């Protein structure tokens, strides 16, 4: 009788864990880069695909401990074990002739996760569930080709036959992931602006993954924006994106309306807003020394922020052009997870919808500055800069007009609050870029001074 995963896993996991301090920091989705790792412990949440096969999978959770008082973090690590790992998949560790590797790169193992969802199956304490009404769409589609997405992501997504997309959350937080909860709510509200939710993988008090319809013929807003910014820099007479910006504004307004109806609205807690703005500042300054000279001015501005009669509700929480998909029919919003670095109660607290608006406005500027910083050198002359920045200003206006037409609230009438949220986003971005894409930090830094009115 051959040994199955049930017999092997308890002995294998501690050995894999020993290899993780070297492997984890190389992953795009690993948020603990830069902090010295002290130890990684692995526990198995569920084993799958282990019947009589030489290969098997383990949905493991890695608990990562750091030196210097940084809080412990948990990451989902779907592991594959096989004597013949998939070609090209980096091996985390060889264990007596068995390779341990990231299971998201193994077609057989990821297909098994899809099958488990389709069958509404439980593995120990892990529940694989199909959303009501969604089962028939995929339950019998075994053997569909799967591919891991190569996009720069905070999580890992696997696309099955261009029909389904399974996102496995990497950094785990206690509670139901807002991406699951909000998609369930918007599905019930029959929102036209989200991709249908088809299933989920959930453990006790934690969400491991969400399954959606894959929109194969969609293009994301960032790609459309940078393409047009480049054409504008070259002096081409184009303006399609301005209509698109208006459409994005209307879609965001419609989603805000549905979220407000489902989760309710309340007066904005301005003291909490100020605390959060200051916390973002305090977090960013030590990481990005170039912010130091703005810190006093920002602190003064955040401390003195006033916003009479502002309202709060559930929002997207991390909205930018990469989070909106243009389908042939309409704009969709994706990824309602919020900022994974914050605990779920912070992410699900009612906030001003203008935070989402500010995130999107920043993104138009980002597309413009990205072209000016990284575009073809010949664009770097005065006229190209003026054209591209005017294009971004026009896109911002169109977005606000679209939002106003869908919600009755024109964001431009709430200048102080909107500016504070844009500044907050710039601080967040400066920290994010310093940690993840240091070359890009110039983009948020460039817009800081003019937004401060200096
Ligand atoms: N339903 C979908 N249909 C098509 N593509 C999608 C869908 N959902 C997400 N994507 C693509 O997958 C990428 C990553 O998705 P996202 O939810 O933003 O992941 P993450 O939380 O890791 O950032 C997106 O940029 C988008 O291009
Ligand atoms: O990956 P997430 O969607 O969780 O978001 C993080 O990464 C984004 C970059 O991928 C980052 O967005 C910033 O860069 C975008 C262009 O790549 C730009 O459109 C956004 O406006 C800008 O904020 C986002 O901030 C971060 O949370």
TrEMBL record:
Q: Does the keyword Transport apply?
A: no
Origin organism of this chain? Actinokineospora auranticolor
Report the family membership: Belongs to the aminoglycoside phosphotransferase family.
Q: Which pathway does the protein contribute to?
A: Glycan biosynthesis; glycogen biosynthesis
Q: Which GO terms describe its molecular function?
A: ATP binding; kinase activity
Describe the subunit structure: Monomer.
Q: Which residues form the Maltokinase N-terminal cap domain?
A: 23-106
Q: Which SUPFAM superfamilies match?
A: Protein kinase-like (PK-like) (SSF56112)
EC no.? 2.7.1.175
Q: Which UniProt keywords apply?
A: ATP-binding, Carbohydrate metabolism, Glycogen biosynthesis, Glycogen metabolism, Kinase, Nucleotide-binding, Transferase
User: Among the record's GO biological process terms, what is one?
Assistant: glycogen biosynthetic process
Instruction: Give the catalysed reaction(s), semicolon-separated.
Output: D-maltose + ATP = alpha-maltose 1-phosphate + ADP + H(+)
State the name under which the record lists this protein.
Maltokinase
Spell out the InterPro entries in the cross-references: Kinase-like_dom_sf, Mak_N_cap
> What superkingdom heads the lineage?
Bacteria
Pfam short name (any one)? Mak_N_cap
